[in-house]
Amino acid sequence: MSGMVLVNGREDEALSALDRGLSYGDGLFETIRFVDGVAPLWARHMQRLQEGCARLRLPMPAVSLLEREAALAVQGRVDAVLRITLTRGVGARGYAPPPEPTPTRIVAAFPAPAADASAARDGLRTRLCTLRLAAQPALAGLKHLNRLEQVLARAEWNDPAIAEGLLCDMHGRLISATMANLFAVIDGVPVTPSLDTCGVAGVARAEALAVLPQAQVRELPLQEALGADELFLTSSVRGILPVQAVDAKIFAPGPVTRMLQQHWRRLGFRAPDVPMESA
Amino acid sequence: MSGMVLVNGREDEALSALDRGLSYGDGLFETIRFVDGVAPLWARHMQRLQEGCARLRLPMPAVSLLEREAALAVQGRVDAVLRITLTRGVGARGYAPPPEPTPTRIVAAFPAPAADASAARDGLRTRLCTLRLAAQPALAGLKHLNRLEQVLARAEWNDPAIAEGLLCDMHGRLISATMANLFAVIDGVPVTPSLDTCGVAGVARAEALAVLPQAQVRELPLQEALGADELFLTSSVRGILPVQAVDAKIFAPGPVTRMLQQHWRRLGFRAPDVPMESA
Q: Which end of chain B is more exposed for a tag (fewer CB within 10 A), N or C?
């Protein structure tokens, strides 16, 4: 199911069972899409990893080292998803972080998900999850290894026709999907939820914000989002995907979604057969 | 730093780097104190693990199997702390739990912490942590592998004279210490915080509640706790420990603390030199 796995630079899937990444989820990860051996959003992934390391006080590996290991891991794959996991390494039992940790670095390549032209064109069917995300400002925005909320949310449905679940916080504000960030276009203005108390600050979300200068980052009550003109998901692995439905509520892909999909193609992502903006 | 480690019954520290326990913290653990090869609270640990498995929909291993592996791992150690970690095993990339997981089972023995007679007699100095625990009813009470909150809280101080940090929720209600549960004796009544929205439902807390029929489980505002007659911590590893101070506020060990310490000795824990209840 996976390709090459490098643990601290060695081609070896074995990790110490005493690693703090396992014991406590004490670490971070990045999931990076490669196309023809190139990761168009690589710089943003490295920036986020750097910021996460600063917040968790983990030493950031040299980007040049990660580049070399990434190239080695994806070698021979036309399309790949690379997961970089960085943990605080093996330490004495107990929560106290070792003063000078020896981090564990895992670089693993996986096959990219199959291109789904109909998802890109018509959108994804989604559902609203029952689970609500907890508010924890100390961890909000980070792509850390504590992901049981997402596991429980994703376990809420089995229907393969439902591609994603949308998650609210405890106050009924929409935050994200289980594996993607979310934008709503409301009266022509793109809005994406602020992630000050929960959620993951996605790399694709950052790229979308960079090309949507008029976009607002703010609280987004679910009811307001359900009245949006367009709803779409941003994912570093799957790109820009319209939301076709949230439970029974139907949406149509709109011009902001199409413009971003075109931008994604210009970045180098070989998107499936998606209609051009005004073709 | 550790003794024997068994991964799925094999004496081997190696774990797959693709285990969901590492990828997502998708699993549970127990930390069990052994004295002379016996774990006085074993049955309670097994009960909690069983309940955690039911809530996370993980298959519970046979208790007889865990018993055998525990005995093997602690063999030769007079005192030991055993950590049992149970994860959802290796799965395809993505949050969706595999429909029929092959769990990973890690049984690892560690040296027990040195007996600390002065801590048992006079109590621990503690501090109030800045970090506040997030409210997540879906995970509250579970001893799951998502423990970044505890890691961040424990990283708030380095002073070795401070043995523990106390944690409130976002509403200023006291919940626990970073590695222990907490009781306050208020007007003669033992009170321990309810754990419906956050915290870990400790095995030592359950034992203490079983021998304190008059105890209340309820919300405990920090200010009320700071006015208590007695404050003590319960830990399956360290037993019953008085709180001597929370920052500048001083407490004295009281009769409920001493009675529980005596109960712990009767359970078989060789407590350090603690004064007898009325000796």
A: C
